[in-house]
Amino acid sequence: MPRGLNKVTLIGHLGKDPELRITTNNTPIATFSMATNESYKDSEGNLIEKTEWHNIVLWRKVAEIAQQYLKKGSKIYLEGKIATRSYEKDGQKKYITEIVGDTLLMLDGKSDNGGNGGGETQNPPSDLPF
């Protein structure tokens, strides 16, 4: 029996274009923010809309694919795990919680405008591993 489970599933939109970096041992890493939205009615019947922002980290081939095919506004399905790490800034220890993604699906369809605007993403070749 497993001792625990750390699994996250999100559907939302990118808040900015993915930023791709290469680590010192040549491993690609992409980071971006992602918004998920929910709406509900409060006790008085008013519609309340809430946006939650997530820091996303992708590694290796998935990072390269994200940088190549995604942009601000792209709609995606993401699976991964929650990870918290610490770093030092101005002599103080800081903490950040991120979603480390391992499965990525692009949910945007092709638009009829012929361009790359309006949140459209290109579909990668079907043999890509994600």
List the helices and strands and how they pair.
Elements: E1 8-14, E2 19-22, E3 28-41, E4 47-59, H1 60-69, E5 75-89, E6 92-106
Parallel strand pairs: 4-6
Antiparallel strand pairs: 1-3, 1-5, 2-3, 3-4, 5-6
Percentage of residues in strands: over 45%
Number of domains: 1
Rounded average pLDDT: 86
| Distance between the amino and carboxyl termini | 28 Å
Going across the biggest sheet, name each strand in turn. Answer: 1-3-4-6-5
Low-pLDDT residue intervals, each spanning 5 or more residues: 111-130
CATH architecture: Beta Barrel
Number of strands: 6
> What would you report as the Rg, rounded to the nearest angstrom?
17 Å
Q: Structural class of the secondary structure composition?
A: mainly beta
CATH class descriptor name: Mainly Beta
* Order of helical and strand elements: EEEEHEE
Model description:
This protein is mainly beta and 130 residues long. It is built from one helix and six strands. It has one domain (8-40, 48-106): Nucleic acid-binding proteins (OB fold (Dihydrolipoamide Acetyltransferase, E2P), Beta Barrel). Helices cover 8% and strands 52% of the residues. A hairpin with a 5-residue loop joins β2 and β3 (28-41). The chain is globular. The protein starts with 7 loop residues before the first strand and ends in a 24-residue tail after the last strand.
